[in-house]
């Protein structure tokens, strides 16, 4: 009997502990619980309504996170599900993510109605891009996104736009005062429109991926901390030929990936540049630090002044070459991390006598070396 009493007491204590743990979560203020719900995938966030009466109103009172990835298993159900979600939620919106091919053609009217819904008022994150493997490259006649997509320009903090054409008439006059991250993926946009869009926001992170319609990308921003440019010119549709970092006093991370017939990169002013990559041995990319260094591919053609700010460097070479690595280390004497990717090990690197004096004279600060 005493044993049964002890077991019953322990069980009751366990249930009380579980109840207390549940009460701690449910006892949080509505605002905190609403933030938690709005960070969940759409389907899971809506399902919190069935947990208890305490949670029943939270999903409708929390900012709406409408993410197509968690809504439905079959693409044909997407339109009806989105319409039902927007009708059920009073807003405001936090995030709206939808494949751009659901906004074209016969769906354009419905998409415009979605974007004008009060449930998306005060939207913070907008993602309009393609997740369809059949749309790896822009169509022959890319279409502009619905005009209503830009009614959030005053409140957007993150914007990802893909698989479309951005005409100057749409971007002209818009301002994005709160935009922190901007990504353009497989977008057709003119040079003047692109520069106007970058100038209209105080973004900290910029990604330009497989875009076309311009020959030169100029970076002039006092807020940018990271820039990524990615382009593969297999189909000769990518027209970018020059990238100029004219004035970027806060830029710390510059990443370039892809293969071009020719790309000229000029770094005029980036006094805080810390991370640089990727430099390729098998493409005609030229990197120039104005009044300092000229690197073509991975070959250093001139070195009048070292670049001491760069501490992280990534390079891609067809065959590992110690001579190339040493010359790059001379350009960037403050390197702390070096990442190398190569197809093969290359020829035997007889370095002991050749570089012995040089290595002893260098103040080598390298802490991490990764070779794949």
Automatic annotation (TrEMBL):
Residues 25-65 form the F-box domain. InterPro entries: F-box-like_dom_sf, F-box_AtFBL13-like, F-box_dom, F-box_dom-containing, LRR_dom_sf, LRR_FXL15/At3g58940/PEG3-like. CDD domains: F-box_AtFBL13-like (cd22160). Residues 112-340 form the F-box/LRR-repeat protein 15/At3g58940/PEG3-like LRR domain. The lineage of its organism: Eukaryota, Viridiplantae, Streptophyta, Embryophyta, Tracheophyta. Transmembrane segments: none annotated. Pfam families: F-box, LRR_At5g56370. It comes from Triticum urartu (Red wild einkorn). Residues 1-19 have a biased composition (Low complexity). This is F-box domain-containing protein. Residues 1-27 are annotated as: Disordered.
